[in-house]
Amino acid sequence: MRAARMRKVRVVSVAAAAVVLVFPVDTAHAIIGGREVPVTGYPFAVMVNSAQGRCGGVLVAPDAVLTAGHCAAAASADGMRVVAGRQHPGDSDGVDVGVRRSWVHPGYENAHQSNDIAVLRLDGQLRYRPAKFAGPGDEGRYAAGTQATVVGWGRVSASGAPATTLNGVTVSVMADQDCAAAYGDYDRRVKLCAGDPHGGKDACQGDSGGPLLVDGVVIGIVSGGAGCGEREHPGIYTRLASFTSDLQDQLKR
Ligand code: ARG
Fold first, then answer.
1. Is 116 in the active site?
2. How many angstroms does the Cα of residue 1 sit away from the middle of ligand 1?
3. Is-catalytic flag, 208?
4. Per-residue pLDDT tens digits for 194-236
């Protein structure tokens, strides 16, 4: 009787230990409602660090990174560092490079975060695979209801600290009318919104500037949102396809 109970206790604690191993505590609620993803699977995802804090970015050429306008507007070019290939922000692996010049969309405005996009030209070349990004003919790829992935090193809870690793989560692209119902200043020409019908899955502070992807193609850049993971407030993204000519122009220079 006693031995049987001991055995049972031992079985239960072995099972508990196994659960802990499979779901390490600090990655169970990552980005918001996501999990740790390997940076090698998203080689074009970079951190953009400055004294103003952490943002994400997307490598689109060996020396060019897309980020959010509000990230680049907050810092000077020489105050930003771009970091590629680093899983854990606290480590020193991967490559860290400076920014030679930054272009913030001239139509970017803080009040409604419209045209929330910027291009950073790097001091050197990063040997990581640049991302493909959506153009004007690609709208069909991300109709409402499409599952998309957002990755970043941002907060894993609305009021918490930045993440200690790269995280990703799957969200659904929402219909423009639902985005507009959630946000009075939603502008379908330059924004997208995505979330989860039940809430709990989203980007958060520190993820701004990072990629929203469908089938490996970047369709949006993390821009804003009220709170993080709130059911009634999906995440707002810059609609990349609306900026093709600006980006081509910047990438030529
Ligand atoms: N503005 C934030 C940043 O600077 C990103 C906010 C994204 N929020 C959201 N709920 N999806 O990192």
1. yes
2. 56
3. yes
4. 999 999 999 999 999 999 999 999 999 999 999 999 999 999 9
**Does this model's pTM top 0.85?**
yes
* Spatial separation of the C-alpha atoms in residues 117 and 223, rounded to whole Å: 8
Residues in Cβ contact with 58 at an 8 Å cutoff, skipping those fewer than 6 apart: 44, 45, 46, 65, 66, 67, 131, 133, 209, 210, 211, 218, 221
Pairwise CA distance, residues 107 & 187, whole Å: 13
The span from the CA of 220 to the CA of 200, in Å, is 20
Burial (CB count <10 Å: 0-12, 13-18, 19+), residue 87? middle
Q: Distance from the CA of 246 to the center of ligand 1, in angstroms?
A: 23
Distance CA 240, CA 248 (A): 12
What is the DSSP secondary structure assignment for residue 199, as one 8-state letter?
A: S
Q: Is-contact 216 210, C-beta < 8 A?
A: no
Write out the residue range of the structural domain in which residue 216 sits: 133-241
| Position in ligand 1 atom list of the atom nearest CA 208 | 12
Atom of ligand 1 nearest to the CA of 228: 10
Cβ 224 under 6 angstroms from ligand 1: yes
Confirm whether 11 is domain-assigned.
Answer: no
Q: Domain check: are 112 and 52 in the same one? A: yes
Same domain, 55 and 142: no
Is 172 a known active-site residue?
A: no
**Atom from ligand 1 closest to the CA of residue 53:** 4
Q: What is the pLDDT of residues 154-207, one digit of tens each?
A: 999 998 888 999 999 999 999 999 999 999 999 999 999 999 999 999 999 999
Spatial distance between the Cα atoms of 39 and 78, rounded to a whole number of angstroms: 25
- Which of the residues 70, 105, 172, 207 is marked catalytic? 70
User: Ligand 1 test: best mutation among 114, 117, 171, 204, most atoms within 8 Å of CB?
Assistant: 204
